[in-house]
Write a structure and sequence with these properties.
The chain has helices spanning 6-28, 84-87, 198-205, 253-258, 277-291, 293-296, 312-324, 341-368, and strands at 32-38, 71-76, 90-92, 112-117, 120-123, 130-134, 140-144, 175-182, 188-191, 223-229, 232-238, 265-271, 300-305, 330-332. It is an alpha/beta fold.
Length: 374
């Protein structure tokens, strides 16, 4: 029997621990969940007749049933995961209560409220039709309306039928399976291959403390950090390292790519000390374009990281080679020494503010447009 070396034992223990950590981190951060929702049934109407002393032939006085509760999606602050929807998948609103005598209507059923983080999309069971997109705190969307309460027999009284003995049952509520998909809302998104230095950079420029190590796939879920520069702040998302084939799901990259869709600018971090930086740049650009063409067209700055560990003349050659291949704006920095970091942050903030101003102008033009002007 072959003898197992100490190094092999340690390697196996590391693998087991790493797999456990992957499961733990996925439990902490959940960006997708499938749930069942059902609105409440309407309460039935009542069949009742007035019975009082000295009124031997009182008329019908059955009240209407109450309306069933709605299913409402509400965007709330302070959340950045769908982990609560891992353990509870069924959400049902309460039914309306039945009507009763003396023309008393039934009470409305309580609503079922889904409290969801900003950036959550609600999709139908086919995972393609968007039913709601929650982008602002306080936003509410009624996903399913409760059933209408049935009419009591008082409603059916007429000159020809003064004592109706019929009432309506309440309308049944609707039910639906839906997908919840979280796409983090950040101003800037960090993309790059594993071990490009994204987590290190975010930990340097913000209070976020992502896990950092010298092996690939240390970051297993997106991290958000508030970045400050020159008394200004913006939100940055560190997206787990993408790999070739990410748009098809390799490394569950298709879900990670969804988190940069809402970013105003992408910061593509490229390890200047890697074996083939040019090929690394091409891989990420191809994955962005394959996932969604709009991602490849987003404003982007390419940043050569770990520049303190590479000769200056090599950095210049690499910049020239990348530019000749179509790379746009290229900056150089080192997260460890801090060289070039302020310049990168200032450039990101400038692009973000330009994007915000363009969006504001577009909104103002849309509001000021009058169809009678044509």
């Amino acid at each position: 029997m072959a003898k197992v070396s100490h190094a092999q034992k340690m390697g196996h223990l590391f693998y087991v621990d790493h797999q456990k950590q992957i499961k733990t981190d996925i439990m902490k951060f959940l960006d997708q969940a499938k749930i069942f929702i059902k609105s409440g049934n309407g309460g039935p109407g009542a069949v009742s007749f007035r019975r009082e002393a000295n009124v031997p032939r009182g008329g019908p006085d059955g009240g209407d049933g109450g309306k069933g509760g709605d299913v409402i999606a509400k965007c709330v602050g302070g959340l950045n995961t769908l982990i609560d929807y891992r353990y509870q998948q069924h959400f049902k609103a309460a039914s309306g209560t039945p009507g009763s005598g003396r023309d008393r209507s039934g009470g409305k059923g309580d609503h079922a409220i889904l409290r969801l983080p900003e950036g959550t999309q609600i999709l139908s069971d086919d995972q393609s039709t968007v039913l709601a997109d929650l982008t602002k705190e306080g936003q509410e969307v009624v996903l399913l309306k409760g059933g209408i309460g049935g009419k009591g027999n008082a409603f059916f009284a007429s000159s020809t039928n003064q004592a109706p003995r019929r009432a309506q049952p309440g309308e049944r509520g609707a039910e639906l399976w839906v997908w919840l998909r979280l796409k983090l809302i950040a101003d800037a998104g960090l993309v790059g291959l594993p071990n490009a230095g994204k987590s290190t950079f975010l930990s340097v420029v913000s209070a976020a403390r992502p896990k950092i190590a010298d092996y690939p796939f240390t970051t297993l879920h997106p991290n958000l950090g508030v970045v400050g520069i020159d008394n200004h702040e913006f939100v940055m998302a560190d997206i787990p390292g993408l790999i070739e084939g990410a748009h098809e799901g390799a490394g569950i990259g298709h879900r990670f790519l969804g988190h940069v869709e809402r970013c105003r600018v992408l910061m593509h971090l490229l390890d200047a000390t890697s074996n083939d930086p040019l090929q690394s740049w091409k891989i990420i650009r191809n994955e962005l374009a394959a996932y969604d063409k709009s991602l490849a067209e987003k404003p982007e700055i390419l940043v050569l990281s770990k520049a303190d560990a590479a000769p200056a003349d090599y950095i210049d050659e690499l910049k020239a080679e990348l530019a000749s291949q179509g790379a746009g704006e290229i900056l150089v920095m080192s997260s460890v020494s801090g060289a070039g970091v302020p310049q990168v942050l200032r450039r990101l903030y400038q692009i973000i503010t330009d994007s915000q101003m363009d969006e504001l102008r577009a909104q103002q033009e849309q509001q000021s447009w009058n169809p009678h002007d044509d």
